[in-house]
Amino acid sequence: MSRPPALGNIRVVDFSWVRAGPWATRWLGAFGAEVIKIEWPENERGRLPSTTTPHNLEVNLNTSGNFNDTNVNKKSLSLNVRSAKGLEIVKRLIAVSDIVIENFSSRVLQKWGLGYEELRKIKPDIVYVSMSGYGHTGRHHHYTTFGPVAQAVSGLTSISGLPDKPPAGWGWSYMDDTGGMYGAMCALTGLYHRNMTGRGQHIDLSQMVSSVALNGPALLDFTVNGRGSRRPGYPPGNRAHWPGTPLVNNYRGPTVAPHNAYRTHPGEYNDWCVIVCHTDEEWRRLVQVMGAPLWAASPKFATVMGRLHLQEELDEQIETWSVTLGKYELTERCQAAGVRALPVQSAEDRVEHDPQLRHREIYLEMEQPALGRHKVQNAPFKLSETPASNHRPSPLIGQHTKEIVEGLLGYSREELRAGFADGTFWPTRRARFPYGGDASVSGAQPLPGPLAGLRILELADEKGQFCGKLLGDLGADVVKIEPPGGEPCRRIGPFADDIPHPERSLSFWYYNTSKRGITLNLETADGRQLFRRLVAKSDILLETFRPGFLASLELDYESLRKQNARLIMCALTPFGQTGPWRDYLSSDLLHMAAGGEMASSGYDETDVPNAPPIAPGGGNAWHMGCHFAYMAIMAALVYRTVSKQGQYIDASIHEACALTTEAAIASYIYRGEVLRRQTGRHHAAGPTPRTQFRAKDGTHVCALVAGRLTPKYIGQLADLLDTNGMADDLRDPKYQDPAVIAANTSHIIDDLVANFIASLPAEQVYHAAQERGFTWGAVRAPEELLEDPHLHDRGFWKEAEHPEFGRAFIYPGEAAIYNGSPWRISRRAPLIGEHNPEIFCDELGLSYAELSILAENRVI
Description:
Helix content is 35%, strand content 14%. The chain is of the alpha/beta class.
C-alpha cells in the first residue's frame, strides 16, 4: 500500500518564473501538492534563453535542462491572464485552490486584478505568498533584483573572498535558491496556520531582506561591539583567521588551524580537499595520517596559537603531502583517523563520484518528453510516513491546459477551442506544439505567530539551532535542551565586548532567539526519565546528534512514539542516518567543499592567479540544512493536522548543500559541462562579461548588464550614464542594430559602464540605476545595512532586551511580513538553565528540593 503525500489534497496556483519562485513550488509538488504553473509563451524567462539544452536538441520552450530540474512535479496551464477571459479563468481556478505563489516585481499581480484583497473575496482562506525582490512594503519595493543583486546589497557578497582582493562573492544565485526555500517555508507555515485557525493571509517575502538575516553573527558583532567587517584580514578566504592580522573571530565557527583547502593529485582544476582540525588532538591525528613528518613534530605547531600564527608555513607543508594523494583517498584516510576532511566536489563529482549521494539516491532518472531520460535532483530528507518524491517530470508549456480547463474547471470543449482561437490559451501568431490542448500587512499587530501553540524540544548544536530559531521566531514554544554547563556553541565567538564567556557568545545569541532554555544530562537515568516526560507533552523533537546516539539511550523515535504517537522527530545530521559517510566528521567549511559551493566560487585566473576555490561566508551550510529541515517539519505538521499522526524525518546537511548550486548540476547532466569559477559573478562553462565594478569610494557595484543589451536597453543606459555626462557614443543610431551591439559589448561594459561606476560612490550608483529600472546593487558590508531606509520601513531591525546587561541590542529580524500572524523575535537567547525552575517545577511538578538534588548530581 503506497503512503499518502503530506500535501495530497492541496492545490497551488504558481505564478512564478525564472528560479526563486519555481524552486519554491518544486518542493511543494514533491510533498504531493498539485502545482499548476501559469505560463505564457511570450514572456516565459525561466524556459528561455537556455544554456542547459543538450547539444543534440533545438533550443525551444521545452528543452531547457535547468527548467526541467526546477519545475518537476508541476502541471502547466498556458493562459493570458491579462485578457478578461484569462482573468476570469484564473480566478475560477483560485477559487478551488489553497495557495497562490508569485515572484513578480512588487504590485504587478495587483495591477492585473490578482492582488490579495481581490483574491480573498474569491477564496477567504487563501494563503497568498508574494516573493518580490524587495517585498511589497518599504520605499524601495519597486526595485528589482535577481540573486546576485540581493547578495550584493545584503552583505553576503562582501563576506566571501580573499583580503585585499575584489569580493569573490557567490558563484551562482544563492538567493534564488534560498529565496525559493523561504517561499516554500512561508507557504507551508501559512498553510499550517490556516489548517489550525481557518484563516488565510498574505505573506510578503523579500528576497533581499531574507539575505540580510544570514549575516547574523557579523551584524551582532557590529550592533554589540561596534566592529565592522571592513577590516584587515577580512574576509579570510577559507581560513578561520588570516595570518598577520588581529586575532578576532571571522564568523567561520571556531578559530582554528589548519582550516583551508589544499591541492590534491593530479592537480587539475577541481583537485582540492578541505582539512580542518578543531583541536590539538585532531592535529596530532593528522600528523600521523601524514606519516609523522619531522616538520610536524616541531613544538611551534603543537598548539592552536602556534598554528594560527604560522599558517602560511603550515599550509605549505600540508600541501606538500596532500598533492601526493587523490582527494577521495585523502578524505578516506583522514576520516578513518578521526580528522575532518572532505573533497571539493564539482557537479560531475557529485553526480558521478560521491558515494554518499549515490547511496541516498539524490539523483534519480526521470523521462521528460522533450529531453528524454536524465537524472533529476531529489529531496535531502526522508519522511517516514509521507515521503517526498519527484513523481512528475517538468511540464511541456501548456501541456495540461485541456485537463485543467475542461476537467477541473468544467469549461466545454467549444469554450476551450474558442479560447485558443482568440488568444486566451496561446498567442494567436505563435505556432503551437503538437500536443495542443484543444485538439485532443502589517507585522506590528499583537497577534500570535503562525506556529503558536506548538511545543518543540531542541537538542541541537550549530547544525540545527537556526531551524529552532526559525520555529521560535514564528511563534512556537522552543525549549532548548543543553547539557549541564551549556552547549559547546556557547564557546564560539565573537563575544560581547570580546570577553569570552558562555553567556556572551554573539553567535549563540543570534541563533537562539525566541527559545526557552533548560539543562539536562541524557546520559543519566533521571535525565532520560525527565526527557520522556517532556516528549509526551511536545509536538516536535529536533536533534543533531551523531546517528545511533539517541538509540543507544533508548530515546530513538520508535521508543518515543510509544508515549506520543503525534510526535514529529527530525534528525538533522551532516550526512543522514545511512550511507558510507554517515559517521564522517564535518564542519561548515567541509560541507561547502563537498556540497559544491567551493567548486563554484572564487576568482578568474586573470584576477587572482592560482587562487583556491573559496567557500562563501561562514555558517551557510548550517543555514541550508536548516531551511530544508524546517520545510520537512512543516510538511509533516500540515499532514498531522489531517491525519493526527506523527513521523520521523531523516534530514542531511550534505544533501541540502548539494542541491544549492543553481544550474551547476543541470549543466553537467544535460550538457556534460563542468562550470568554472569567475570573480564576483556566476560560474560558467567559459568566460562571461564581468558584472562587478569598482566604484569611486573603493567598494563595488554588481551591475547585471550582459544578456540585456537590446536597442531599448541601450537607450535607457545612455540616459543613466548621461546623468553624469558619460553616455559617450551610446546615442549613436548604430546601436539600433543588434549586430552592432553584439560587436561592441566589451566596449559598452568594460569601458562605458565601468567608467560610469568608477566616477561615483557605490550607493549613489545603486539608487540611480534602480530608480531607472536597472537591476544593479552596491556590494555592501553587513553593517551598512543598519542605515538602509527600506529595512527600517519594513520594521526589520528588532530590539531584544538583555536584562543582565541592562540594555537592549539590535538584531536582524524577519524575512517576511505575515499580515495575520507575525514573525518576530519574542526574547533573547536563554541563559544556561534559565528556565529549569519554570519547566521542571512549574510544568513537570518537581519540587525545588528535587531540582537541587538533580543539580548536585549533574542531571541538570
